[in-house]
Amino acid sequence: MSLIRSSLWCALTLVVVAISPAHAQSPEAPFDQAKALAELRKSIEGKEDQQAVDVFMNVKQYKGVTAERLLRIMEFGFSRSLGVTCTHCHVPGEWESDDKGAKETARAMSAMVSAINNDYLKNITTLNSANPSVNCTTCHRGQKRPALELPTPPPAAH
Ligand code: HEC
Ligand code: HEC
After folding, report:
1. pLDDT tens for residues 107-123?
2. What is the pLDDT of residues 37-62, one digit of tens each?
């Protein structure tokens, strides 16, 4: 009887150890942007050409673009031009959340870009360009803070 009881106890202990969250506290794996994009593409399979506003949950600005185009804007237009990964503006997996301030900043920046393109550049009649425009890269050039000065030139070679 006591043998059965102690082996039961032993089995119970094993179960508790197996489901304890200790191993979940190991340091988080670094964010894998290619994997995140692949998972998102899989989750919108068949809906790539539908409007982003209908496919995703919290699209307020890029309503007129397709779902696939929105992902490309995220990858190249936003992440690459600022030199960041998705995590600068998003909690991975909670893409619709507006918790990170940088996401709201990005919305305001994209409104600013539209204003520059539509309200200012289009009205400079003396420009010899059919479609003058700026985008995120124009200012950011791979950095979070656009430069105010050119880098110091290297000392002249003798
Ligand atoms: C500079 C900030 C920024 C970066 C970097 C960024 N995003 Fe976004 N993301 C936004 C903003 C802003 C929106 C909302 C756009 C709108 O309102 O039209 C958004 C929306 C989204 C959405 C739609 C979510 C929903 O359900 O509404 C997805 C999916 C998404 N981003 C994925 C990504 C991925 C993947 C990356 C990295 C490759 C990334 N984003 C990088 C700012 C960013
Ligand atoms: C006309 C120049 C200009 C353009 C174009 C521009 N930005 Fe910015 N952006 C700035 C400036 C200036 C700051 C503020 C830098 C600082 O902190 O002093 C900034 C800051 C930001 C930040 C905050 C960075 C941080 O530290 O977290 C985000 C996010 C951002 N921009 C996103 C964008 C996105 C997305 C686009 C394209 C839709 C864009 N910007 C286009 C000038 C620009």
Report:
1. 999 999 999 999 999 99
2. 999 999 999 999 999 999 999 999 99
Three-class DSSP labels, the chain: CHHHHHHHHHHHHHHHHHHCHHHHHCCCCCCCHHHHHHHHHHHCCCCCCCEHHHHCCCCCCCCCCEHHHHHHHHHHHHHHHHCCCHHHCCCCCCCCCCCCHHHHHHHHHHHHHHHHHHHHHHHCCCCCCCCCCCCHHHHHCCCCCCCCCCCCCCCCCC
| Structural domains of the chain, count | 1
Q: Which atom of ligand 2 is nearest to the CA of 135?
A: 5
CATH label of the domain that carries residue 44: 1.10.468.10
Tokens of 154: 């290297």
Q: Which atom of ligand 2 is nearest to the CA of 102?
A: 29
145 in a domain, yes or no? no
Question: Are 64 and 51 contacting, i.e. CB atoms less than 8 angstroms apart?
Answer: yes
Query: Is the C-beta atom of 102 inside 6 A of ligand 2?
Result: yes
